[in-house]
Amino acid sequence: xxxxxxxxxxxxxxxxxxxxxxxxxxxxxxxxxxxxxxxxxxxxxxxxxxxxxxxxxxxxxxxxxxxxxxxxxxxxxxxxxxxxxxxxxxxxxxxxxxxxxxxxxxxxxxxxxxxxxxxxxxxxxxxxxxxxxxxxxxxxxxxxxxxxxxxxxxxxxxxxxxxxxxxxxxxxxxxxxxxxxxxxxxxxxxxxxxxxxxxxxxxxxxxxxxxxxxxxxxxxxxxxxxxxxxxxxxxxxxxxxxxxxxxxxxxxxxxxxxxxxxxxxxxxxxxxxxxxxxxxxxxxxxxxxxxxxxxxxxxxxxxxxxxxxxxxxx
Length: 314
Hints:
Helix content is 7%, strand content 30%. By secondary structure, it is mainly β. The chain folds into two domains: 36-272, Jelly Rolls, CATH 2.60.120.200; 274-314, no CATH class. A hairpin with a 6-residue loop joins strand 1 and strand 2 (46-50). The termini are far apart.
């Protein structure tokens, strides 16, 4: 025993072999922030999970896209500020009980958003200058099918300009006509620029510029009750891309959230405009950017007295 202790003592005094050290070269340390999509519980192959601190302090995950080029007035490529609806399948991580603050599912500006108000246990929709609310209790892990939006032009039910649909149950509101306004330059899904994150999984998010038909109200495109039947795979498969300003089906493999097949896309509305410079009978010079078919006789611009609209050739 004495010899063993002496040996241990000798080893401690002698010391162990030196540990190699490394110098960190910060020039080699790079990080690119990107959003990932993970295997989803709903109808999609993958979906982003937007999270933040439970007290909504600091910056959480950010999913965003540009509003795009201006088409006309408050209408931009990726969102029409005159009339819009946002839809998604949302699986919250945090239940209603014991939580406070707002959690944004969609935020285009202070006049255009859909959020969950934990202080009042309800969904809150802002369309133009008007607000619609829908009392609802969130259950962690329970997926909800949500479509919400409104119009500054058309009423849904003869009275209200806004609607929130949760699992095909519809709440109408905003009897006063909202004021149209443009979306901000950057539009966010699942937070407000990283603040007030929704704390949940978002699948099949989309934006349209029509009032989807719910079997009674909305625009009936001949497809029946779109809200009840919609699988959220890609809304454009039902209504077409001309009324879809932006879509994020996330029906691709798990990995980096990107654009392209199964990820996110937009209809290029602004590039499809008939503009005054090149448009149909809008240029002051006959046949500018157009080719004559057949043998037109003496083509000329209509005289002012001959016009119904401020353009036309004869």
